[in-house]
TrEMBL record:
Transmembrane portions of the chain: 55-75, 81-101, 113-135, 167-190, 202-225
Keyword Cell inner membrane tagged: no
One Pfam family matching this protein: Bac_export_1
Function recorded in the entry: Role in flagellar biosynthesis.
UniProt entry tagged with the keyword Membrane: yes
Membership in a protein family: Belongs to the FliR/MopE/SpaR family.
Bilayer topology term: Multi-pass membrane protein
Compartmental location: Cell membrane; Bacterial flagellum basal body
Coiled-coil region(s): none
Protein name in UniProt: Flagellar biosynthetic protein FliR
Main location: membrane
Keywords recorded for this protein, A-Z: Bacterial flagellum, Cell membrane, Cell projection, Cilium, Flagellum, Membrane, Transmembrane, Transmembrane helix
Amino acid sequence: MWALLFVMVRVGAAFVFAPVFGNVSVPLPVRVALSGAIGVLVLGANPVTPPAQVFALATFVAVAAEALVGLALGFVLQIAFAAPLIAGEIIGGSMGIGFANMIDPNSGRSSPAIGQFLSILLTLLFLSLDGHLVLVDMVLRSYRALPPGAAWLTAGQLRDIALFGGYAFLAGLLLALPVGFLLLCLNLVLGMLSRSAPALNLFAIGLPASLAAGVVALAIAFPAMGDFMLVIVREGLDMTQRLVLR
């Protein structure tokens, strides 16, 4: 039982930050039961030896190292899943509906409606690619590359995680680029019209035009955005693999 609880620290920490598993809509007993089931698989596939004493300083340090590895595995994927929220902020602000917020089922916090829609779409693509199974496989492999007792992440690995944080902004910008560029051109045209014809009430024209152009642009750009979301999922999984198999 002590060995199982020790293994569940890394698995549970990974599921706290990982997408899908870390959603607030997933009940806590389900997470615990899932961590225990995967912990049994880990004990069957890898010879894990827990610390001899439960209440000891070395045990607390080993538990902290296990939690750090698990949080790193889940956090890397969570960085990739932040790209749709950034893209939703850009698109929603350009369309004039940045105030349209909804409760995100993944985090339980308020987020833009467009960003939440793109995030749900990315989650469905993640599940269709068996990303959740790949994550479980990465957790199992992490016990070979980072066995208990030698599970501290190196400075290079921590640097790679920090540098990968910039990928969320890059991917969010590229994801919003087709729609955002069209809306930027529309805003430029409306700006020139407002300078050339100040008597026109462009506020009554600009918002409906931005909404209509944004909806049409989203409908046209959905295939390209879906293909790029697949790239985002693969980049997140590849980064997780490099973190484990370094």
